Each structure stands twice: as C-alpha cells, then as structure tokens.
C-alpha cells in the first residue's frame, strides 16, 4: 500500500507566505486554533451533506464531532475530526499550494505592513488559516483519510519550504492536525496551548457557535484529591442565527462575523432577521467595514452561506444575494428546502427568489437607515459596487438612487446625494449635470466645466468606471434628466447671449466649413461653443454617442465597437480662434492653417485627458511653431 515518504516543495508563494507568518510579530496567535476548528467544522458539514446525497457512502456519521487533545509532556496539541477527510491529491493541492486569487497582492501588503493588527487583518481576509499553525508550532503533522476510501495520507512539515507526504494504511476517517508546539514565550504572546484553561478560553471566544460538539478529555478532581479523566464538550453548539436578537450580545455577533467572513475587523452593521409564512428562514447578515482585496476579482468570494435546518449546504450561495451586494457576509438557514438542492436548482427555485428579494430589500433598508458617519465609511468602501445594482436590479432602482453619493463642484470634500443636488438646482434648471473621468482633478480642470462654473451650475463629478454606464442606463432622477456636460449642445445662455452667438456663427461660417474639411478624418463637425470661457477649444459627443471612456472599457473587455467621431467646439472669444479666423479670412497659407487646426484639435483632446492618434506628428508641428516664434 505504501509508496514510501516523498518530499515536495511548497509552491513559491505558499513558501513566502509561510515565512512571513512565522517570522512576523502578531499580537494574537490564538487565531490558529480558531482556524483549525473552523476547518474541522467545514469537514463535518461536508460529510453530513455527502452522506445525505449518497446514501451508499461507506462512512460512519453516527457521532460526528471535533476532538482536541493536549499532551503537556510531549508539548503537542491535536485537533481531530471524523469528517470528510482528504485524498493525497487534495492534501497537495490545498496545503502545498495557495490556489487563491490575489495571493501576490496579499504578500505585497503583508511585507509593507509594519502594524501587527493590520497584518492579522490581511491574513484573516484571505482565509489561509492552516498556515497560521506555524506561528505556534515547530512542526505540523496532518493525518487524513477521505470518507469512503481505505487508505490515508500523512503530511508533515516544519514550514521551512518543503513538506513530506506518504500513504498510510491505518488512518481513521477524517483529519487530525498535530502541532509540535514552540516553547512558551509570553513576551512573544506564545501561550501554553496545552493548558486546559487556555484551550477553553479560545474555544469559548471563537468557536462557541460551531454546530458540532468540540470535545476534550480533562482531569476532573475527586474528593480524595485524585483526578479522573472526563470527556467534556467545550462549546454550546447553539446557532447564533436561531436565537432571538435580545439573546445575543454584540461580542457574539462580532465573533460570528469573524468566523464567516475570515476578517479581523468588526462588522459595520449586523442584520438579524426571520422570515415566516409559507417559507420560513432565518438570516444573520453582516456589512463589512472594509472592502476585501478580491472584491473586483472574478474569482472572489460571492454570496452567503446556505444552511437547511442547520445542515450546511454550500458556501458562497450567490442565488441568495445579487452580485452588486457580493460584499454581504453571513448565513441563511432555510427550513423547507431539499438537502439535495444544487446551485442550478437554486437559481430556478421560486422560494429562493422570494427570499432573495426580501434579503435585498432588508439590506438596502439597513443602508438607508445607517448613521451618516457609518454610511460615509460604507460608501467609500463599497459605493462603486452598489452602483452596479443600477444596471442589474431594475426593481430597486429608486432605492439605489437614494443611496448614491457623488462628489460635486458644490463641495470640494463632502459628497452629495441626488436629492440634495435637486434641492440646490437653480431656478429654471431642468437637468442634473454630471461629468465623468478618471479622477476629480482631471474633471475639474476640463474645459467642459468652464461655462457651468462661470454661471454657477453645480456638476456631479463621477470617477468610477461604472458611472459611465449607469447614468446612461438610468437616464433621470426625480423627473430630472441626467445630462453629461461633455455631450450635446449646452443651453445656459440668456436671450441676449443667444443673439450674440447667432451673429458670431454667421461671422465664423467660412472658418468652420474650412476646419470641418481639414479635420474630416477626426471629427464629424466643427462648431462654436457655448460651454467655453477660457479654453480655445474642446471636443464633445452628440447627445447619444458613446463616450471615449466607454469605448476603451468595451475594447479592454475584447468587444469590438465602431470608433465614434466627435465634435470640435471653438471658443469665439479666445485670441487663438479669432486669430485663426482672421488668418483664414485674409487667405493665409492653407497648409499652415491646417496644421493649426490639428494643433487646436490635439490640445482639446489632451485637455480632457484623451489620447492623440499620432503624438509624434503633434509634437513635431508644435516644435516647429515654437521654433518659428523665437
């Protein structure tokens, strides 16, 4: 049966992570036991589920539990479960490597972090709990056998870059992890993890809510001073979500959140709800206080945990929570679902869809009722994700619009609500003006804002990529059209200004015709602008054109989109434009005028943060003009 002992190397990133965890300074090393118990609980959940689905599975499920065994003399601590276990290939894949998106980013942040609490927070975010054992152990031995299989696997490592693995014949069902503990070092927060009171305290603090019994044999003193061994259960096993809210204190909620979210920080908000009627369920949901590193990763965790009558069904149940609320953590325990339910069935299940609608409405209502300070924190971390809901969830568009916060020209620091913007609108203003771009500085310096700033109109400053899409999709708020300052004609003029503009259009007609021909390959039209006050020119789109940023986004996703020609607008009050009109009227050199037109168009592109089609030609023309001017 045995193929002997084989020595393998950790994957490079796993090895780096091990070194960082072993040699970093942590304020609380107790986390290792919480993570081992959590892993054991997951293994028991999976065995229970598999035995329900496969009635013929040859596995003993009569007494599923977690056992902790401490040996003071040998200075070892063992955490054992009789759950699903692992095959040899699973051991290599799950422990020898880190198959998680964003590991390189985690390593970078850990190296940069000199703060112990911040380091722990990052470890917790990525859920690499098994590696935490090397904070307290010189050597770790794992013995496991997959339920239903005859042979087991022994894995062992000192965390120095390699591990040994071998097949064994006498492994019991499940997994045991034995830590060969480092010496006690109170200065380094290395406690005596063989001490009964230490183990009890850690289990109570972190794992009291685990639904499986956590047992330990302890020495019970007798009347004559002698001790007798007695097996005791260390946890209450009472599911937090099944209790009423007044039976649970904040500390318990926080510890439960840390368990389900693998996060060291406290949650920003707790949602404890119960659904009754034709379909009963309990839900305990949390809004995190910071965004996980994989929030925008396609491989990131999605959804909440699903239980049926306290039996674990699946992690990351995306059928219960829409993608734009993917940061919500917690559990939903349904009473009437089949235990054999799959992700595909869940997507179609009418009752699950009804639960999802209720959960979404509850989460959105909770966000609406949050304090200003808490909501400011929430929006900073998750605002860009929530706005995805304006594309995905038409049923809740009005609620989501009330939740939107946006920077604006009204206040350089404090974002505004759409409701507050509407209340500040000028008399006669019928549209909500906005500008999109990569950052606030670029937008505020854009020529598109000049007339709006001069006439005192407030403009929303939208810098998230999703803003390019949702403002077009939604179209209006409270009966007011959402209008881009960089698209279409701008009507901010008085009657007197309109009459003056009409006279100027007649005066500039010949120049506009010439420029339209000279720049025909680049623009669809050249016209005089009513949105410029200081810049000579800007480029704008028609009212229904796709923006350049949106074009880039689609191309980055591999989608081919036709290139949209834009409109060049000129400021008739700028000396460069008046000089160009005069030179053209006097029959100036056509080639020189054409080059000036190219420079004008190029400057307009650069002013809005755009890219030149031929930067080398632009710089050559500009250099020649500068040289002639000296």
UniProtKB/TrEMBL annotation:
Residues 28-185 form the Histidine kinase/HSP90-like ATPase domain. Keywords: ATP-binding, Chaperone, Cytoplasm, Nucleotide-binding, Stress response. Residues 1-343 are annotated as: A. It comes from the Bacteria. Residues 553-630 are annotated as: C. SMART domains: HATPase_c. Molecular chaperone. Has ATPase activity. PANTHER family: HEAT SHOCK PROTEIN 90 FAMILY MEMBER. This is Chaperone protein HtpG. It comes from Micromonospora chalcea.
């Amino acid at each position: 049966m045995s193929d002997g002992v084989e020595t393998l190397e950790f994957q490079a990133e796993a090895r780096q992570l091990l070194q960082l965890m072993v040699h970093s300074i942590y304020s609380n090393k107790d986390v290792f036991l919480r993570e081992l118990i959590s892993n054991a609980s997951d293994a028991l959940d999976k065995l229970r589920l598999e035995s329900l689905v496969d009635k013929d599975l040859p596995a003993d499920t009569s007494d599923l539990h977690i056992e902790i065994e401490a040996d003071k003399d040998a200075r070892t601590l063992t955490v054992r479960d009789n759950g699903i276990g692992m095959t040899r290939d699973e051991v290599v894949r799950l422990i020898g490597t880190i198959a998680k998106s964003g590991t390189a980013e985690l390593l970078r942040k850990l190296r940069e972090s000199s703060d112990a609490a911040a380091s722990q927070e990052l470890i917790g975010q990525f859920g690499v709990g098994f590696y935490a054992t090397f904070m307290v152990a010189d050597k770790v031995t794992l013995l496991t056998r997959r339920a239903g299989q005859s042979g087991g696997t022994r894995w062992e490592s000192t965390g120095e870059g390699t591990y040994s693995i071998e097949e064994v014949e006498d492994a019991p069902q499940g997994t045991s992890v034995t830590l060969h503990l480092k010496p006690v070092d109170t200065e380094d927060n290395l406690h005596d993890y063989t001490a009964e009171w230490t183990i009890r305290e850690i289990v109570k603090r972190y794992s009291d809510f685990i639904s499986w019994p956590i047992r330990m044999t302890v020495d019970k003193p007798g009347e004559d001073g002698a001790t007798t061994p007695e097996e005791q259960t260390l946890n209450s096993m009472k599911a937090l979500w099944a209790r009423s809210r007044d039976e649970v204190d904040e500390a318990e909620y926080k510890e439960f959140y840390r368990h389900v979210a693998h996060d060291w920080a406290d949650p920003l908000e707790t949602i404890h709800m119960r659904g009754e009627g034709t379909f009963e369920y309990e839900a305990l949901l949390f809004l995190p206080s910071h965004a996980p590193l994989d929030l925008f990763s396609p491989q990131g965790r999605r959804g909440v945990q699903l239980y049926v009558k306290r039996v674990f069904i699946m992690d990351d149940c995306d059928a219960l929570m829409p993608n734009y609320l993917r940061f919500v953590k917690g559990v939903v325990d349904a009473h009437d679902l089949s235990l054999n339910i799959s992700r595909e069935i869940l997507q179609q299940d009418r009752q699950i869809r009804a639960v999802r609608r209720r959960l979404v409405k509850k989460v959105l209502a909770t966000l609406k009722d949050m304090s200003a300070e808490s909501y400011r924190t929430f929006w900073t971390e998750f605002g860009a994700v929530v706005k995805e809901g304006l594309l995905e969830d038409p049923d809740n568009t009005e609620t989501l619009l009330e939740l939107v916060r946006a920077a604006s020209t009204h206040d350089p620091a404090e974002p505004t609500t759409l409701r507050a913007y509407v209340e500040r609108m000028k008399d006669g203003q019928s549209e909500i003006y906005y500008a999109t771009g990569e950052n606030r500085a670029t937008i505020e310096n854009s020529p598109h804002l000049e007339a709006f700033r001069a006439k005192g109109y407030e403009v929303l400053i939208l810098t998230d990529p999703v803003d390019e899409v949702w403002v077009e999709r939604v179209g209006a708020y409270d009966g007011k059209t959402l209008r881009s300052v960089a698209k279409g004609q701008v009507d901010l003029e008085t009657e007197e200004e309109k009459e003056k503009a009409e006279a100027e259009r007649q005066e500039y007609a010949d120049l506009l015709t010439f420029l339209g021909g000279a720049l025909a390959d680049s623009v669809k039209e050249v016209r005089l602008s009513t949105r410029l006050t200081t810049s000579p020119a800007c480029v704008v789109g028609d009212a229904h054109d796709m923006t350049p940023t949106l074009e880039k986004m689609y191309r980055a996703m591999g989608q081919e989109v036709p290139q949209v020609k834009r409109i060049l607008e000129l400021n008739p009050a700028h000396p460069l434009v008046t000089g160009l009109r005069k030179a053209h009227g006097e029959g100036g050199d056509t080639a020189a005028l054409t080059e000036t037109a190219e420079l004008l168009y190029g400057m307009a592109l650069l002013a809005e943060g755009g890219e030149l089609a031929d930067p080398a030609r632009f710089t050559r023309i500009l250099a020649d003009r500068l040289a002639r001017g000296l």
